[in-house]
Amino acid sequence: MGKGSGKGESVSDNVLKKVLLSYTYVGIWIFLSFTVIVYNKYILDRKMYNWPFPISLTMIHMAFCSALAVLLVRVMKLVEPIGMTKEVYLSSIVPIGALYSMSLWFSNSAYIYLSVSFIQMLKALMPVAVYSIGVGLKRDTFKSNTMANMIGISVGVAIAAYGEAKFNSWGVMLQLGAVAFEATRLVLIQILLTSKGITLNPITSLYYVAPCCLLFLTVPWLFVEFPVLKETSTFHFDYFIFGTNSLCAFALNLAVFLLIGKTSALTMNVAGVVKDWLLIAFSWSIIKDMVTPINLLGYGLAFLGVCYYNHSKLQALKLKEAQKKSAQADEEAGLMEQRSERDGESMTGKGDAQA
Question: pTM here?
Answer without folding.
Answer: 0.82
